[in-house]
Amino acid sequence: MNDFASKRERRIERFRELAEKHENISNGRHFAARQQLEMIPPGQPILVGHHSERGHRAHLKRIDQHFAKAKQHHDTAEYFRRRAAAMESNRAIFSDDPDAAEKLVDKIERLKKRQGLMKRANQLIRKDDREGLADLGFSGEAIERLL
To answer: Which of 36, 67, 78, 93 has its CA 20 to 30 A from that of 3?
Structure first.
């Protein structure tokens, strides 16, 4: 593995680690909020004017903050997962890649082959040759749309 590929792999791994880290933080925050929520009996109203009102409101605010932070870290974890997946699926040819010349030649060959296929398909469309298009690999539905 050359330096370019190893650097790319390290970066993908770093994104995965960050995603896992933020997901763990999110799970911890969510667990903490659920624990604090269990301290309040279900359906317990805030007793307005009672000496416990201020503490109850503060307790609910802390629970809301835990849930908000959990959501924020979950979103950050998703962001890093998407970044890692995007880097893995990215097939762009970079100028600092030592294999860039070979990759460009391969890409040009594939595109030339595809262009030849499309030229042949255009000739068959002009001739209204359904069998020829089917031989090229076009589905019946695609042939109907083309003709």
So the answer is: 78
DSSP string, the chain: --HHHHHHHHHHHHHHHHHHHHHHHHHHHHHHHHHHHHTSPTTPPP-TTSTTHHHHHHHHHHHHHHHHHHHHHHHHHHHHHHHHHHHHH--PPPTT-TTHHHHHHHHHHHHHHHHHHHHHHHHHHHHT-HHHHHHHT--HHHHHHH-
The string of pLDDT tens digits covering residues 41-96 is: 888 888 898 898 899 899 999 999 999 999 999 999 999 999 999 999 988 888 87
**pTM of the predicted model, to two decimals?**
0.67
SS3 labels along 79-119: HHHHHHHHHHHCCCCCCCCCCHHHHHHHHHHHHHHHHHHHH
